[in-house]
Design a protein that fits this description.
Distance between the termini: 70 Å
Structural class: alpha/beta
Shape: elongated
Number of strands: 13
Largest sheet: 6 strands, antiparallel
Low-confidence stretches: 440-450, 506-512
């Protein structure tokens, strides 16, 4: 037992506990601080914090300090392998005075990084007697061996690290439950959950904040499945009309005869089976917002009537000559090239200009890879509830497959894919086989980056895609930025950060 409390160490413990109990946002940063404090206060030359991967039965280096920390973080240790693996398997502390002669020591790591280990101290990080990982100190700075006091202090730090990990898991669980309640509440009100992590979508939402304050018409453009309806919902929910109706109409869903009645309503006897007067969607949306999806499929005759509603705020029901006035904001969306439709006179130019007051282009999922992990996790939670099955996330191969796929059907295809995986999945985690997606480039991406971490794969994906679009535009950054729908300055920054080079320029430099 510790007989004399070191004031510096005690204050450090209080400081770390305050951070843990304040729901510290970055778990890796907190674990780094815990390990740094343990290393410094126990006088170690180097240290590592390893976490257990139960699925693979191995440990990976989450944090490493001192010595050859950068090289060490690339290694993994099998359960039972090396000092850390032995501690994790037996869930016991170990103190070694001559690691090089200890048969439990992982000599291959020491030799690979050229960092000899003499004295070592390793303790398990436990939560409810389960070993979540190991904190390992290597070599005392004064050349001596670790002692009992070092061991007792390190066990305290390991308990703090375990508490931090448990808190992070609890916070993640609570956030998931809160998200579930929000999803259910939004679904009850007819709204979808907006998932946005990528800079390009966050930029769109900033634009929506400004657009929502007006009553001008908005034309939302983008490929099928990108979530145009969700952006229409966000415009309504961020506007002064948010407490009024939000009415949705799919212009491609009904034939022209029924569509007119659907939009503007009808009176009794207006046509066969019109046995009662019926309010149309515009009347239902009075005071609120109407969203006209697939506007490019609306007939020319109905386009003329829609133009009148926009210009005069009035319409007549089918079979009636009584004019009705409405106060409705119109949002429209299409996945068609509406400008070509105007050129071919398939869409009225005057209606196009009235709808296109505030155009909003939603980029495809392949241009916003940062959103993919968030969307994947959201859909997994959704379909686990619906299928009454439980999965502990995705395997690394499955997530790599998801990130590498081009998603021609965008978010709708991703949602269908995750639903299918939940239905057929039989393992603890969703596997790449459960996804039923063809491998379309993951091997090339991971070879490019050499980094299989989530951020590494995302960066490699972005680099490959930006390079492809640059090549399509003859390396003209202005045209490429337009194609990517991002600012040119942002593109220039990405090119620099992702180390994207023009092969022609590289060869010119080489020949000089």
């Amino acid at each position: 037992m510790l007989t004399k409390i070191d004031v510096q160490k005690f204050n450090t413990l209080i400081e770390i506990n305050l951070l843990i109990n304040s729901n510290f946002g970055d778990l890796n940063a907190l674990l780094t601080q815990i390990l740094d404090s343990a290393t410094r206060l126990c006088g170690a030359a180097a240290s590592s914090l390893l976490l257990v991967n139960k699925e693979k039965q191995e440990l990976y280096f989450e944090v490493a300090i001192g010595g050859k920390s950068a090289e060490i973080k690339h290694f993994t240790v099998k359960m039972g392998e090396g000092i850390a693996g032995w501690v994790a398997m037996h869930n016991k502390t170990i103190m070694v005075s001559d690691a090089e002669s200890d048969n439990r020591h992982a000599h291959n790591i020491s030799k690979s990084v050229d960092y000899p280990s003499k004295a070592m101290l390793a303790v398990p990080m436990r939560v409810k007697d389960e070993c979540l990982g190991v904190i390992e100190l290597i070599n005392k700075t004064n050349g001596k061996n670790f002692d009992q006091e070092d061991l007792e202090w390190l066990e305290i730090f390991a308990n703090q690290a375990g508490l931090a990990i448990a808190n992070a898991h609890n916070i993640e669980r609570v956030r998931g439950e809160i998200q579930l309640l929000q999803d259910q509440l939004g679904a009850d009100q007819g709204y979808h959950t907006m998932i946005a992590k990528s800079p390009i979508i966050l930029e769109k939402l900033e634009i929506i904040d400004r657009v929502a304050r007006t009553d001008s018409s908005v034309l939302i453009l983008g490929e099928s499945g990108v979530g145009k309806e969700l952006f229409a919902e966000q415009i309504h929910l961020r506007s002064d009309r948010k407490n009024k109706p939000f009415i949705r109409v799919n212009c491609a869903a009904l034939p022209e005869g029924l569509m007119e009645s659907e939009l503007f309503g009808h009176v009794k006897g207006a046509f066969t089976n019109a046995i009662a007067t019926r309010a149309g969607r515009f009347e239902q949306a009075d005071g609120g917002t109407i969203f006209l999806d697939e506007i490019g499929d609306l007939s020319l005759a109905l386009q003329a009537k829609l133009l009148r509603v926009i210009q005069e705020k009035s319409f007549e029901k089918l079979g009636s000559d009584i004019t009705h006035m409405v106060d409705v904001r119109i949002l429209a969306a299409t996945n068609k090239d509406i400008e070509k439709q105007v050129e071919k006179q398939e869409f009225r130019s005057d209606l196009y200009y009235r709808l296109n007051v505030l155009p909003l282009y939603i980029p495809p999922l392949r241009q916003r890879p940062e959103d993919i992990p968030e969307l994947t996790d959201f859909f997994l939670r959704k379909f686990m509830r619906e299928t009454k099955k439980s999965f502990d996330g995705f395997t690394e191969d499955a997530m790599e497959t998801i990130l590498s796929y081009s998603w021609p059907g965008n978010i709708r295809e991703l949602e269908n894919c995750i639903e299918r995986a939940c239905v057929i999945g039989k393992n603890e985690k969703i596997t790449s086989d459960d996804l039923l997606l063809k491998d379309n480039g993951m091997q090339a991406i991971t070879q490019d980056s050499g980094d299989r971490s989530m951020q590494g794969v995302l960066n490699a994906f972005k680099a490959r895609y930006i390079r492809k679009v640059l090549m399509e535009n003859n390396w003209n950054q202005t045209e490429t930025a337009k194609a990517l729908d991002i600012q040119r300055t942002y593109l220039s920054r990405l090119i620099k950060e992702l180390d994207i080079t023009n092969p022609k320029e590289s060869s010119n430099y080489g020949s000089g």
